[in-house]
């Protein structure tokens, strides 16, 4: 297959794809607007943060597979892909450790005011009296919103610091999740409102869906105790940013954020975020999954998805496909001629 890799991707895994007979075009600086022309002649696309629009998919002449080298697929127009018979796959869980580590880092930074410490020292200011005030993590009540792979991995780290983990009870949790949660001594409450009232740290680990959009709104923020900490390393649009700013100014809420509603869709650019500039916010640049460990784990799974796709029967969906039904319904779906091996060329 001809594969366009439109974001950063480790060289050794590009070499592994080439060793399997694939031709990789490595263009990590491709923007969302450039994809429409860059996709010509390519059978597969691998992206991380670059948005894949309906226009790009419609302009592609041979695209059959889009892989998001991460967990969420909200930056990809899955409906357009399905209409054109293009499978969309993600790589869930492989970046859980990295995101959990960053979330924990933001919590520690907020508790100890680490960025302000550094800024003052670099400016030749010594203010031990100010920075000696910290609550510590031990004994805090940490509410985890979203007990998926990332949420649980963060909860395990918070618990190891002596924090009490809390979450919302749900009837459809799988047994493995419940086992891990109970092993941490997780306290389950009946509602998100109760979770906010109970905890002084609220950490969000949910996908971007219609149900989670603006999940952290004025109503939920009003339930938090004064001085509470909010952590969001999932998606920017789950937060009502104006409401969060009001809560920071009126109720002393502080926030550790890795994502923002209007962040750039490419790796570099400019950002004008009133929320990111707020003094109660410690922010990072959507780097939750950006550790060497995570990128190697994700890249290895991308190679596995490509291999599975090219060796499967034409009607068989690749691993972690999120739009199987849409592709199945696509009346114009056309598979390449069989190579005789039962798989895709």
From TrEMBL:
SUPFAM superfamilies assigned: Formate/glycerate dehydrogenase catalytic domain-like (SSF52283), NAD(P)-binding Rossmann-fold domains (SSF51735)
Keyword terms, alphabetized: NAD, Oxidoreductase
Domain D-isomer specific 2-hydroxyacid dehydrogenase NAD-binding: 104-288
Residues annotated as domain D-isomer specific 2-hydroxyacid dehydrogenase catalytic: 3-323
Pfam families according to UniProt: 2-Hacid_dh, 2-Hacid_dh_C
Family: Belongs to the D-isomer specific 2-hydroxyacid dehydrogenase family.
Name of this chain's protein: D-3-phosphoglycerate dehydrogenase
């Amino acid at each position: 297959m001809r594969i366009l890799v439109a974001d950063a991707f480790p060289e050794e895994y590009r070499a592994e794809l080439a060793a399997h007979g694939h031709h990789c075009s490595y263009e990590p600086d491709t923007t969302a607007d450039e994809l429409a022309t860059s996709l010509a002649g390519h059978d597969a696309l691998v992206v991380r943060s670059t948005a894949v629009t309906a226009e790009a998919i419609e302009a592609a002449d041979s695209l059959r597979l889009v892989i998001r080298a991460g967990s969420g697929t909200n930056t990809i127009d899955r409906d357009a892909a399905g209409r054109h018979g293009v499978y969309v796959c993600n790589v869930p869980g492989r970046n859980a450790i990295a995101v959990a580590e960053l979330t924990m880092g933001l919590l520690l930074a907020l508790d100890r005011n680490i960025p302000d410490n550094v800024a003052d020292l670099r400016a030749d200011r010594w203010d031990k009296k100010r920075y000696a005030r910290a609550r510590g993590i031990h004994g805090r009540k940490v509410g985890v919103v979203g007990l998926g792979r990332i949420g649980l991995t963060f909860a395990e780290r918070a618990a190891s610091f002596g924090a009490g983990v809390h979450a919302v009870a749900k009837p459809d949790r799988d047994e493995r999740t419940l086992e891990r949660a109970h092993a941490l001594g997780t306290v389950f409450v009946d509602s998100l409102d109760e979770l906010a009232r109970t905890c002084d740290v609220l950490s969000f680990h949910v996908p971007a869906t219609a149900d989670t959009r603006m999940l952290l709104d004025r109503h939920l923020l009003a339930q938090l105790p004064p001085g509470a900490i909010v952590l969001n390393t999932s998606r920017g649009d789950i937060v009502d940013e104006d409401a969060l700013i009001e809560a920071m100014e009126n109720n002393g809420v502080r926030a550790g954020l890795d994502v923002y509603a209007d962040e750039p869709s490419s790796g570099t650019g400019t950002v004008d975020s009133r929320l990111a500039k707020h003094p109660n916010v410690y922010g990072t640049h959507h780097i939750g999954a950006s550790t060497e460990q995570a990128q190697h784990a994700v890249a290895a799974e991308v190679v596995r998805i490509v291999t599975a796709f090219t060796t499967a029967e034409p009607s068989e969906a690749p691993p972690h496909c999120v739009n199987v039904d849409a592709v199945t319904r696509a009346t114009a779906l056309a598979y390449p001629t069989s190579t005789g091996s039962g798989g895709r060329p």
